[in-house]
Amino acid sequence: MSLRSLMAHPLAWLLAIALAHVVVRVAVSPALKWDEAEQMLWSRELALGYGAQPPLYTWLQWLTNQVFGPSVLALSLLKHTLLALTYTLMWLAGRELLGQRGAWWASASMLLFPALGWDSVRDQTHSILVTAMACGAWWLLLRIVKRSRSVDFALLGLVCGVGLLAKYSFALVIGVMLVAALSVPQARRALFARGWWWVLIVGGLVVLPHAIWLASHLQEATAGTLAKMEIQPALGRGLLDLLIAIVGMLALWALVALAVFRSACWRRPLMPVAPWAQQIFVRYVLLALLVLLGMVLAAGVTHFEGRWVLPLLCMVPLAVFAARPELQHHPRAGRYSAAVVFIALIFLLAAGLRPWVTGLRGHPDELNHPVVELGNALRQAGYDSVSPIIAADHMLAGALLTRFPRAPVNACTSSKNVATCIASHLARARTAGQGWLLISREDRLEPGWWAGASAGRPALAMQSIRLPFHKVRPGVPPAHYQFVWQPAGTAGASTREP
Fold first, then answer.
1. Using CB atoms within 10 A of its CB, is residue 165 exposed (0-12), middle (13-18) or buried (19+)?
2. Which of 4, 34, 219, 425 is 20 to 30 Å apart from 368, CA to CA?
3. In which region does residue 69 sit, left (phi positive, over 0), alpha (psi from -120 to 50) or beta (all else)?
């Protein structure tokens, strides 16, 4: 197949945009955002669980790091490969019901969801993987209803297992999907056709090792998520937050569709391409909304985010275009495709310009930090590139790990007892006969961190590094880092810890 014929395929443009984002992210900054730094630290080793998150994304990041090293390239490649997989799986779901154009719309329209088109590019991990599996589940469900085969049941089991290892909330997606499908006679007969048990067998085998771990770490795995939901008796706040999350996710896509198709969206009676599929879609959306409403009314959840409802409602464009298949032949159909591509390019441009925007405002953020220069300055100050590094925040720790991949890098923050955390790491360094490096940055230094670092040991010989931020306007104060470097064998490195 020639390059020209490949680029004529509608899906190729979505994959090209994903590749362009990789190039832009690598070119923009070597520093790391919140989730990126978290993955950089977690993916140093394989584990059955990582705090409040299932392990699969971190396993994939570990594998990518083995090939490309712990780097911005590895982080970006994994993320945008999964985004490309998301678009591909939704395109496959669309092809079960629609033509080439309609399938591309169902897939590309997800770019108009800020939670996917922008937030996932800016800084997300697990939400991308779980959304990809939600798209895969829709593709396989539609495929099974049309022609039940054992291999498709096995693939559905694999997708369900992977989805649960991506994010626990995937249980809600498959639960609502199952109830909606079983309520439609044609789908119910297909789901109980010969070979249905492969879903349980394959899905169970995929999830089993983590499920065993989860049984003994339930508090650790759920505490963080429950805290983010802000469970409290505040009904009005919860309802408003849910409404904002749903409308914020769907509004841009709905406005673009209405602007292009206008009265064609409602003027004629619905003639869905597959009535059974439309029944599943409608019942699924209603059930999903009822469950979300129940979380507010019964559980007292008061905080929702667009990325939380994204896996649940990513199928909305597919459902709409399957209900209105005639839109594929609308006189302004080309304008809709052009609008989606234009907005996708706007998001790509914004991703490239974001450090300049924050810098020109005089409020540099993570991507403005001079990570390469900081690594060079620490080497010049004597750091040997392999001794343990203990940072005051995890984003600084993750960024330094990309500069010193052979060093054990950790963060001691307020979520832990700083003094105890630092003492533990320094004790391990002493036992291994290594030196150690303590480091903080002024723009994210918790009060009392250095007091905790100094507890129980002689006065530390603290040094400072000041380096200009990248891509900022003149007059912005430089980045300020403070550090203590104790080489192996010195008095400071061998001091007994409390």
1. buried
2. 425
3. left
